[in-house]
User: What shape does this take?
Amino acid sequence: MVRLPLSDAEIARGRRLGAVLRRARGDRSMLDVSLAAGVSPETLRKIEAGRIATPAFPTIAAIADVLGLSLDAVWAEVNSAALAR
Assistant: This one.
């Protein structure tokens, strides 16, 4: 299967998503959050760094749940920067 290259907008959205999750995690350790969400610490690290620009929905839903974030709030914050341009 060949993956198409991500657009600049998709890459930027992935970075914004990572920033939202990183801020919400605050002082909690990456290990604690990732284990509670059922994802590997490496996956969480890559998402927070914007290296996984299009993570799977269940992954984001699990992380958001552990962080106490609603998916609507995450989506609104991730897209607010794009709309402000």
About this structure: The CA atoms of residues 16 and 81 lie 8 Å apart. The chain is about 70% helix and 0% strand. The helical segments are 8-25, 30-37, 41-48, 57-67, 71-84. The mean pLDDT is 93.
